# Entry
Amino acid sequence: MSVTDAYGTTESQNSPKPTGPRRLATSIRDLTKEYVLKSETVRALRGVSFDVPEGDYVAIMGPSGSGKSTLLNMLGCLDKPTAGSLCLGDDDISKMTDDQLADIRSQRIGFVFQSYNLIQQLSVVENIQVPLYYQGKLGPKERQRAIELATRVGLGDRLDHRPNQLSGGQQQRVAIARSLVNDPFFVLADEPTGNLDSITTDEILAIFDQLNEEGRTIILVTHEDDVALRAKRIVRLKDGMLHTDEPVAESDREAMRERHARAVAELRARE
Ligand SMILES: Nc1ncnc2c1ncn2[C@@H]1O[C@H](COP(=O)(O)OP(=O)(O)OP(=O)(O)O)[C@@H](O)[C@H]1O
Ligand SMILES: [Mg+2]
# Structure
């Protein structure tokens, strides 16, 4: 028998009872972002509010230009809001200086981009260590951690390869390992499977599933329903505003996982 908590999480009755609501990974309130150009002001976000509890897995969807990347960039401390508040845990990052944001970014955020953003001159292991390098940490312990993460994402036999010696899916796995090296507060991914074929997409989504099962909070932007249905919740933006915010039923997630697995098996059989 199972019970469902306020966030829709199903807990076995044998597991310890939660002592209160789950902590929030992030809390977004009336978030506004305006880009002032020469002849006009673009209102990319127009008062977006929602919370993400720790351990959640959120897909952000919406038409092109609806503000998805703008929102993710602010969560990732890559950009600052014009107005509103944005808390990571207990810290309001909307008022922080650029230096403070840079510290938070390198210490607490994992970011995965559609185009991988790896450094071509560096090997797989070195690319994974980049966020630690920015924190001045570059010893044998850090290298060992990078090797463990490379192995975890299935690249244990590619440690000294350069990005241009890897497939797109392998490059994205390096980017995921890099995003985990600072043991981040959450992993943010902007269309992480946008450049990948369906087999590789499934491999990447399986890694996200695993990370989330381990308790890691994931916020991912996607245009694809198939990808969004692997998340626990879908937030849709429209014209810079929150349009809908709906949970994904566990049965729908399971059905999508099975559908992907079947499609991959069929494609592999044809190879
Ligand atoms: N640096 C910028 N300067 C000016 N306008 C910008 C800037 N970045 C984004 N915008 C504008 O803000 C709006 C939201 O852009 P954003 O990149 O967040 O959309 P998106 O939902 O991620 O779209 P897509 O699905 O195409 O990636 C768009 O109208 C865009 O043109
Ligand atoms: Mg975008």
The pocket of adenosine-5'-triphosphate (ligand 1) is lined by residues 35, 37, 42, 44, 62, 64-70 (CB under 6 Å). Helices lie at 68-75, 98-108, 124-133, 140-152, 168-180, 198-213, 225-228, 250-270. Residues 1-17 have pLDDT under 50 and may be disordered. The chain is about 35% helix and 25% strand.
